[in-house]
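hey m, so remember when u said the tokens were messed up on ur end? i reran from scratch. heres the input so u can diff it against urs
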Amino acid sequence: QVHLVESGGGLVQPGRSLNLSCAASGGISLVYVMGWYRQIPDNGGRELVATIGTHDAAQYGRFVNGRFIISRDGAKNTVNLQMNNVEPSDTGLYYCHFRGHREYWGQGTQVTVSS
């Protein structure tokens, strides 16, 4: 079992920055992909925000438009999402995601962008 602990969500003003972190522990695979997805309103699905693998290959959702940076600390099995120049449309429920031999989700953390 892999346990995911999320931190960093909250209220932030437009144009500011926010940092989301997720730490994985437990039965961690040697190779995995880890990152963040956002809940789609009125939809059961979740959309890609950003992920990064153990070989440091990163992917970003189209709405990010170069504003976010995802990084990882391999020794701590932790990912960090630096959200810069946030917009009201970035508001949503963000979930940490881990995919190795099995898939795991964090509990979700709310990000609200508002003045």
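this time it looks ok to me. The first strand starts at residue 2 and ends at 7. if urs says something different then somethings off w ur setup not the seq
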